[in-house]
Design a protein that fits this description.
heterodimer; A: mainly beta; seven-stranded mixed beta sheet; B: about 110 residues; mainly beta; six-stranded mixed beta sheet
Chain lengths: ~120, ~110
């Protein structure tokens, strides 16, 4: 079975540009999480969905960030406009209720974003 | 105060020694606690979970939980160079909201 698929794996863009990160969760998983990881701040939860509905977006830094999950097999995280401080590795992770009881999140390989 | 705090390290131990990693959390209502391992350039992977006060052993790994002190630890016995990684403590706060600490880097010297 394919794992969580994220794209792009690497993105280099200039300040002010729009960035869209994509995630395909594992089939059958009904939880989806977006995290951001930097050396300074570690792994921060941005938002998570259950059955395509956003449950907690309190970690979304500001209005420049938005996330959607139009269906069970696709989610996007958009940054508009991007800033150099948004440079980080963005991870998508999915899971299901049974695995969540043991804390298991299935992570994608991450999207490394560099904003110049 | 961060919700989950860890010493960033690095923690350096010789091969064969016990590595001790610590974590504190702020939400007294948290019930579920997890340790993830992350190799450089890779994504995190779950290695242990613990719900009850006390110790839980799995091979060379032992997780310890003290809810009164809001403290979780991970012991790695007979440390191997392949254990060199960043160890992330994670906590469920409010349902399945999973919050991670910043991680502790562990180096095991051969």
């Amino acid at each position: 079975d394919a794992g969580v698929i994220q794209s792009p794996r690497h993105e280099v863009t200039e300040m002010g540009q729009e960035v869209t990160l994509r995630c395909k969760p594992i089939s059958g998983h009904d939880y989806l999480f977006w995290y951001r990881q930097t050396m300074m701040r570690g792994l921060e939860l941005l938002i998570y969905f259950n059955n395509n509905v956003p449950i907690d977006d309190s970690g979304m830094p500001e209005d420049r960030f938005s996330a959607k999950m139009p269906n069970a097999s696709f989610s996007t995280l958009k940054i508009q406009p991007s800033e150099p401080r948004d440079s980080a590795v963005y991870f998508c992770a999915s899971s299901f209720a049974g695995a969540m009881n043991t804390g298991e999140l299935f992570f994608g390989e991450g999207s490394r974003l560099t904003v110049l | 105060q961060k919700e989950v705090e860890q010493n960033s390290g690095p923690l350096s131990v010789p091969e064969g020694a016990i590595a001790s990693l610590n974590c504190t959390y702020s939400d007294r209502g948290s019930q579920s606690f997890f340790w993830y391992r992350q190799y450089s350039g890779k994504s995190p992977e779950l290695i242990m979970f613990i719900y009850s006060n006390g110790d839980k052993e799995d091979g060379r790994f032992t997780a310890q939980l003290n809810k009164a002190s809001q403290y979780v630890s991970l012991l790695i016995r007979d440390s191997q160079p392949s254990d060199s990684a960043t160890y992330l403590c994670a906590v469920h706060t409010g349902g399945f909201k999973t919050i991670f600490g910043a991680g502790t880097r562990l180096f095991v010297k051969a």
